[in-house]
Each structure stands twice: as structure tokens, then as C-alpha cells.
Write a structure and sequence with these properties.
The protein is an alpha/beta fold. The chain is built from seven helices and eleven strands. The site of zinc ion has 6 residues, from loops.
Length: 256
Amino acid sequence: MNLAVDIGGTYLRYDTGEIKKIEIKNIDIEEFLKELIKKYDVKKIAISFAGQVNKGEILSSPNVKKFNPKNLGIPYVLENDLNCAALAESNYFKSKFLVALYSGTGLGSGIIENGIIRGYKNLAGEIGHIPYKKAPFRCGCGKDNCIELFASGSGIEKWAGFLGCESNLKTTCKEIKKNYEDALLVAVAISLTLFNPEILVLGGGVIKNNPYLLDLIKKEIKNYAPKFAISKIVLSEIEDASLKGAKLLLKEENET
Ligand SMILES: [Zn+2]
């Protein structure tokens, strides 16, 4: 069989007809994938990966341990997880001009304009690491001013540890909630202004657990983005978008 896998910041998901997941911290990624390949007689694998990848190689990965997909010993496609998610969202919403902005463990985006916008080294859309404000700790990329330090699950956790409060948006530390909402609005405004999508899709664990954020963004975005740049903003309606995107890649490759 051909197998689609999604390696995220917290879970590894795979689709054998039924979607299964396992916590990343409990496994050696390479060994685990090798076992799956053996068990399911996998001929080809499409991997969605939560890190910077280009031409089949992992360049860096602030939130996940690196591994070498060449060692798997079978043909593979490797793609950034947000690019995969954007493909799946584009397919679902039937839009060729779409930005998927996800706030989960990290903050990232995938941009579709008649296909994935990649940039020179497939690094376009790494919005989580643009400079925003100084934080009292560092991002996985090494800097201390990334917007991801405010508008992501790992950011919320770092702030919660630093301030000694609960790590969610319902926490009594108003500062965490305010920081998160403000940074997310900035990220949405940047995405709308830079890429002029038909639809901007919000997804990822933090958004999913706090759907009120959509109403907040719709209400406040006029104070962050110029009026002409504001387009349709929606919540993701699909489960496991990155995994679904990886599956689409398997299909595309078979057709070419
Ligand atoms: Zn960073």
C-alpha cells in the first residue's frame, strides 16, 4: 500500500484506512516509520512534517526531532505540514487563492495560489518566526522575538510557565489571553495583506479549542488590516488536514 503520515509537534498520525495517532515523545520517528513500512508492506510514503523541508530533505525543525527519510529505504514525498494542510483546505473549500493559518504547537501558514507558494527553498509561509515583540524566553528557532512565542500553543505554555499560571486561554492570567489574541490578529492581518487570499482558513489545536477566536478576529481585523485586504475568514472544517494533504500528494504523484 501507499501510506500517508503526518508528523506534527505533538502527534504522529497515519492513515491505513483508519487514522491512528501516537505521541511523538514516546517514539523514535525513523524506527516507528520503518516498522509501519514493514507491517503494512508500504511501497511509497508521503510525509507531512512540522518543520522546514525542501526537495526531500529536512532543513530544520524547531518543534520535532529531525530524522532522515532517506533511511526509510522506499520512495517518499516529504512536505511541510502547513503546505499539506493548505492543499487539503484548498481542496475542501474549492479555492485556488487560499491561506491556511494554523495555531497549534507552533504558528504557521501555507499559501495556495494555483498550487503551493514555496519560495526559493520551500520556506515561504513561515509566519511564526517573523519578529513581533521580545519575550523572556526563546523560540525553537533560536530567536526571542518570534510571533509564535505569543500566538501558539507552545507560546502559551512558555508564558504560563514564566508567569506561573494555567496554560490555556481560559487562564486567570489575562496577559496570556491578551497577548495571544493580539498576536493572532497581527498574523491574520499580515497574511491577508501579503497574499490577498479569497479565503483565509484558521486551524490548529488552539483555534479548534477556542472557536470564539473567529468572532473576535472578524470584529477586530479592521483595526489590524487595511479594509481593502480583508477577505473571507473561516474556521477549518476538516480533521487531520495535514494528513489529508499528504494523501493528496500521494495521489498527485501517481498521476504525474
Ligand atoms: Zn522562531
